[in-house]
Amino acid sequence: MNRMYSCILLIEVASLLMPLIASFAPSSLIAAPLQTSKSTPRIRRYSLLQSHGTNLIAANGISKQTFNETICIDKDESQLLNGFTTISKTNEATIDNSPTGELPRHIAFICDGNSRWSKRQSLPKSMGHAAGADRVINVIKALQRYLPSSDYSDDVSVYHESSSTQSTSTEHTSTTTTTHHGTIEYCTLYAFSTENWSRSPEEINTIFKLMERIAIQYRSHESVKSGKIQIDLLGNLEDERIPPGAKKELQRLQSESRDACNKRREKCGNSTNILTICLAINYGARADILQAAQKLAQAIASGELSPNDIAAMDESEISKRLCTAHIPDPDLIIRTSGETRLSNFLLWDAAYAELYFTDLLWPDFDEEALEEALVWYGKRKRRFGGRNE
After folding, report:
1. Are 353 and 333 contacting, i.e. CB atoms less than 8 angstroms apart?
2. What pLDDT was estimated at residue 289?
3. How many CB atoms lie within 10 A of CB 230?
4. How many CA atoms, within 13 angstroms, populate the side-chain half-sphere of residue 370?
5. pTM
6. CA nearest 145: which of 228, 89, 209?
7. Which residues pair with 193 in a beta bridge?
8. CB within 8 A of 218, min separation 6: which ones?
9. How many Å apart are CA 54 and CA 52, to the nearest integer?
10. Region of residue 282 (phi > 0: left; psi between -120 and 50: alpha; otherwise: beta)
11. Active site residues
């Protein structure tokens, strides 16, 4: 079976290389689009191509050895990938329909479809998660362009430009919702849900190994070290099922990026443009609401809240005890893969979020798809229960 799989890949590689060899130098990095049908719009191919003297994954700069160690949980898969490198589409077409209307201050993604993507490409699930991680990187790079600061230019490397930065803490209550924002300041990514523990141990191990490796890579990136990007972790990272190595590196990335951002604010002022990327890991909205209610009950039982306080309390008593208390409610939630549900994601926070669903699988959600979603959002009339008269 492994020999047959290898032969199929080699034949496919040859068929992809032949029409491109005339227009690309031997050292070029090639991104080959997959032939699409009406039912699979804009599906892109992360083709396995022979390495022409480079050991980098074009989309993120990880060495081939690191990629194999991180992604290939099976020895035979590692052997299969030996001598190949994954190439993603890095030169996406210039988009003419850039959003000109209102932008969401907080955009959130349910990054769904990695496994289905790998199945369509006849690749292992591990490759689907790798492609999904690459898409996270490219989407965040695109989001940084909406910050009104010249700091975010193309000098950022293709790989590590994918973290985030935390601006000043924002009170999380529904009463502070506003309707006009000129920049995207927050992005939340549903990386691993409380329900994902039902997956196979092998797949879970792959996902956390990938998170650990990316956390290590991000930490040394210039945008993180200079305080332009901050990572914020949401969810229960005290769960003993989370591999210690992944937990350590994720928390270290969060701490170091936060410190760098604070230093940058001290130097440049609180008006400094920073993009905060919230990674929801071992996160479930119901569990978050439950722990907030438990904290509230404890405050009542301990006498912190008096009977008069209880009678006068509003929903903010729950909001400020959520793990998302320091960030604003999401304005736009995007879910890929054709599913039309929230899947226990930001249920309390999403009360007035605009919901955008696309049939594209997450690894195929490119910059064009992002801009289409932002254009759609800019045309929405957000009334928050009132009327625009």
Report:
1. yes
2. 98
3. 27
4. 29
5. 0.72
6. 228
7. 283
8. 160, 162, 163, 224, 229, 231, 253, 257
9. 6
10. left
11. 112, 196
Per-run averaged pLDDT (10 residues), the chain, 389 residues: 52 47 36 36 37 32 44 40 34 52 94 96 94 90 77 38 35 40 89 97 96 90 83 96 97 95 86 87 98 95 87 92 97 97 98 97 96 95 78
User: Could you identify the residue written with the tokens 């990327």?
Assistant: 277
What is the 3-class SS of the chain, one letter each residue?
A: CHHHHHHHHHHHHHHHHCCCCCCCCCCCCCCCECCCCCCCCCCECCCEEECCCCCECCCCCCEHHHHHHHHCCCHHHHHHHCCEEECCCCCCCCCCCCCCCCCCCEEEEECCCHHHHHHHCCCCHHHHHHHHHHHHHHHHHHHHCCCCCCCCCCCCCCCCCCCCCCCCCCCCCHHHCCCCCCCCCEEEEEEEEHHHHHCCHHHHHHHHHHHHHHHHHHHCCHHHHCCCEEEEEECCCCCCCCCHHHHHHHHHHHHHHHHHHHHHHHHHCCCCCCEEEEEEEEECHHHHHHHHHHHHHHHHHCCCCCHHHHHHCCCHHHHCCCCCCCCCCCCEEEECCCCCCCCCCCCCHHHHCEEEECCCCHHHCCHHHHHHHHHHHHCCCCCCCCCCC
Q: Bridge partners of 180? A: none
Strand pairing category for 275-283 and 186-193: parallel
Contact at 8 Å (CB) between 143 and 274?
no
CA quadruple 304, 307, 313, 318: dihedral positive or negative?
positive
CA distances 111 to 79, 80, 133, 361, Å, are: 29, 27, 10, 8
Cβ–Cβ under 8 Å, residues 163 and 138: no
From the number of C-beta atoms within 10 Å of its C-beta (0-12, 13-18, 19+), residue 287 rates as: middle
Neighbouring CB atoms inside 10 A of 366's CB total: 21
CA-based nearest residue to 277, from 359, 221, 320? 221
CA angle 56, 110, 197 (to 5 degrees): 85
How far apart (Å, rounded) are the C-alpha atoms in residues 358 and 336?
5
**CA 121 remoteness from chain centre:** 21
The per-residue pLDDT for 182 is: 78
pLDDT of residue 307: 78
Q: Is 38 exposed, middle or buried (0-12, 13-18, 19+ CB in 10 A)?
A: exposed
**Residue 329 neighbours by CB under 8 Å, 6+ apart:** 106, 172, 174, 177, 349, 350, 351, 352, 353
